[in-house]
């Protein structure tokens, strides 16, 4: 009597096994960045870029001839503690790679340390961290990790680009340093003093202030101090609402300043705030800016992105972060994390902004940087308006990744 039952059970098991085998394999990527709070718009923009790239990779066959990428989403809430909880949830759901960067360098650093500990204790279940926006040079310096890869130019590289430009800008004479009170803000101020001071020894630094990140509602008191100092320019690492509210306060006060920033134009609302202020010149640096001339591959990607999402495309590096991961998986011929990490080292990638290379000694991507200024459309230097305004971006200077490359204190420990 037990034989038919056993046969039926075996047949059912075989059917279930066949069903499992028929399902396409997946490689899970966990997105951990702010999706709520004052910087939610930044996190949503980054997520949209990554999701578009993942969908495009899958539409073209995925990786390894059929493995699909699956994007999991977690809200970091701009908190190291919340990010740790998100990391554990990602691990529980089978993630093999973490994509992050918009949570700030202190949060991303905590994630990298946690991943390194997890990897050491769980061989065979290792994770990678791909960092598209946190630009603390320590992350590819003294605090470098074999498991961490930075796909954005770091603070020193960006400030070197700005310093090179300021060297040729004689009307910058007195500089105030206004920055958010956390690791990145302090570093933006420090590298500003160091590299701009080196490029222009005649410049006077007339003041320095750190303010709470994401909590200042009115920058008028800070602007009053800047005005009292006699500054004509501000080096600020502010981003998100801290940048837009600063521009608003300056416009309300009628204070015509120059600002030097790392990524302002790629954050939603900044161009609108600059156009409404009508005063000041906001100069920033990125791998590309909207309306940049002679960039047909980015133009085509931006057009496809907007057609699918209804949103403006702003950050090629975020788009090509998962594409570089996919290229490394295919190069390795495996989804085994140590093999994928080894394949990412020294990976040369033909990105839409030109060839980029992941430097093996510290896992810092070498990519071009474009110094550009938010300015009114004039039909010549600025041909395209942005954010529904008649303001766009003027190209001021372009530097290659090799021109901006810095030395590194990284002593990479490989498994």
Q: Order of strands side by side in the largest beta sheet?
A: 7-6-8-9-10-14-15
**Rg computed from alpha carbons, rounded to a whole number of angstroms:** 23 Å
CATH C-level name of the largest domain: Alpha Beta
Determine the CATH topology of the largest domain. Rossmann fold
Share of helical residues = 40-55%
Report the CATH architecture of the largest domain: 3-Layer(aba) Sandwich
Topology as H/E string?
Answer: HEHEHEHEEHEHEHEHEHEHHHEEEEEH
Taken as a percent bin, the fraction of beta residues is: 15-25%
Number of strands: 15
- Which spans of ≥5 residues are poorly predicted at pLDDT below 50? 15-23
First and last CA, distance = 56 Å
Cα shape: globular
**Average pLDDT for all residues:** 93
Q: In terms of structural class, how would the helical and strand content be classed?
A: alpha/beta
Signal peptide: 1-22
Keywords: Amino-acid transport, Signal, Transport
Domain Leucine-binding protein: 26-365
Pfam family, one: Peripla_BP_6
Question: How would you characterize the overall build of this protein?
Answer:
InterPro entries: BCAA_transport, Leu-bd, Leu_Ile_Val-bd, Peripla_BP_I. Residues 26-365 form the Leucine-binding protein domain. The protein has two domains: 26-153 and 296-367, 3-Layer(aba) Sandwich (Rossmann fold); 156-286 and 368-403, Response regulator (Rossmann fold), CATH 3.40.50.2300. It is 42% helix and 20% strand. It contains 13 helices and 15 strands. Strand 12 (354-359) and strand 13 (364-366) form a beta hairpin.
Give a quick rundown of the structure.
This protein is α/β, with parallel strands linked by helices and 415 residues long.
């Amino acid at each position: 009597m037990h034989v038919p039952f056993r046969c039926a059970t075996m047949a059912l098991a075989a059917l279930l096994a066949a069903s499992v085998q028929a399902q396409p394999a997946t490689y899970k990527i966990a997105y951990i960045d702010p999706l709520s709070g004052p910087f939610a718009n930044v996190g949503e923009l980054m997520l949209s870029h990554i999701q578009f790239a993942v969908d495009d990779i899958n539409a073209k066959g995925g990786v390894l001839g059929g493995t699909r990428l699956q994007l999991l989403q977690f809200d970091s809430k701009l908190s190291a503690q919340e990010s740790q909880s998100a990391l554990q949830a990602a691990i529980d759901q089978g993630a093999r790679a973490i994509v992050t960067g918009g949570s700030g360098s202190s949060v991303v650093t905590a994630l990298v340390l946690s991943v390194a500990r997890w990897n050491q204790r769980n061989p065979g279940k290792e994770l990678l961290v791909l960092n598209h926006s946190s630009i603390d040079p320590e992350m590819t310096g003294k605090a470098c990790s074999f498991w961490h890869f930075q796909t954005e130019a770091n603070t020193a590289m960006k400030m070197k680009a700005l310093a090179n430009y300021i060297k040729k800008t004689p009307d910058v004479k007195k500089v105030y340093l206004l920055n958010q009170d956390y690791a990145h803000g302090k570093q933006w101020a420090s590298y500003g003093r160091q590299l701009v001071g080196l490029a222009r020894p005649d410049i006077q630094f007339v003041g320095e202030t750190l303010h709470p990140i994401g909590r200042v509602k009115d920058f008028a008191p800070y602007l009053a101090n800047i005005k009292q100092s006699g500054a004509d320019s501000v080096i600020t690492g502010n981003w998100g609402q801290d940048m837009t509210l600063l521009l608003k306060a300056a416009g309300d006060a009628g204070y015509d300043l120059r600002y030097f920033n790392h990524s302002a134009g790629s954050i939603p609302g900044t161009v609108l705030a600059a156009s409404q202020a009508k005063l000041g010149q906001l100069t920033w640096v990125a791998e590309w800016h909207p309306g940049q001339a002679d960039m047909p591959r980015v133009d085509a990607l931006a057009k496809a992105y907007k057609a699918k999402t209804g949103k403006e495309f702003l950050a090629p590096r975020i788009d090509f972060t998962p594409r570089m991961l996919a290229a490394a998986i295919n190069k390795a011929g495996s989804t085994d994390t140590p093999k994928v990490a080894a394949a990412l080292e020294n990976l040369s990638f033909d990105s839409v902004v030109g060839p980029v290379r992941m430097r093996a000694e510290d896992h810092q991507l070498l990519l071009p940087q474009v110094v550009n200024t938010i300015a009114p459309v004039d039909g010549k230097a600025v041909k395209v308006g942005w954010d529904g305004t008649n303001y766009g971006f003027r190209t001021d200077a372009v530097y290659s990744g090799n021109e901006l490359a810095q030395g590194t204190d990284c002593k990479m420990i490989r498994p």
